[in-house]
């Protein structure tokens, strides 16, 4: 059982150390309205009270997500900027020849959204001399549940060693609103999309396997298949040895 008070302090110190060692002055975080970004933004705010900004980057997103992001930002006094990416998304799809009828429920198209967000986050990070702080947790990293060069395109990932259930406990300790803690996890790629429905397994099952190596055969097989299929997301591009 983790001591979440101690963990919080260690993560805040770790963020501060990584940013300063990089010669930067603060942090930039994408605020999605979900629990991972809420926890990450609060930790960053504690590490850099005057140099943390949260970017709310809707791209044909559920408006409730932006409201949830603002709820966290207001409660913890996190500076925010809202940048609507609908038009850049439309222009890009038009230029690459995507038909209007094919915009929804297409993963190749949906992944453009987090990649536009990544580009925007890095613009502000470069402008302000800050690091882009990622929100991916250990559970997502294990099975590659993130977009390569999208939400996976970050400088540091403070939650990368915490499974989803541990993130929830840390959120409770930090005082994240219950509304955020209890909402179904979603990548927000399309309407009514949820992580667990898309994956076909629950975070409880995934976390239990990560922490103990135990799972029902069907669940274990699914996790190992996802892990193997997505391993390329976690490393540098392969280069020949000759």
UniProtKB/TrEMBL annotation:
Residues engaged in binding Mg(2+): 36, 140
Assembly notes: Homodimer.
Gene: nadE
Organism expressing this protein natively: Selenihalanaerobacter shriftii
Pathway note: Cofactor biosynthesis; NAD(+) biosynthesis; NAD(+) from deamido-NAD(+) (ammonia route): step 1/1
Residues the entry annotates as binding deamido-NAD(+): 115, 148, 155, 232-233
Function: Catalyzes the ATP-dependent amidation of deamido-NAD to form NAD. Uses ammonia as a nitrogen source.
Pfam families membership: NAD_synthase
Listed InterPro entries: NAD/GMP_synthase, NAD_synthase, NH(3)-dep_NAD(+)_synth, Rossmann-like_a/b/a_fold
Binding site for ATP: 30-37, 135, 164, 186
GO cellular component, one term: cytoplasm
EC id: 6.3.1.5
Official protein name in the record: NH(3)-dependent NAD(+) synthetase
GO biological process: NAD+ biosynthetic process
Highest taxon above the source species: Bacteria
NCBIfam families named in the record: nadE (TIGR00552), PRK13980.1 (NF010587)
Family: Belongs to the NAD synthetase family.
Class in the EC hierarchy, top level: ligase
Molecular function (Gene Ontology), one example: glutaminase activity
Domain NAD/GMP synthase residues, every copy: 9-235
Catalytic activity from the UniProt record: deamido-NAD(+) + NH4(+) + ATP = AMP + diphosphate + NAD(+) + H(+)
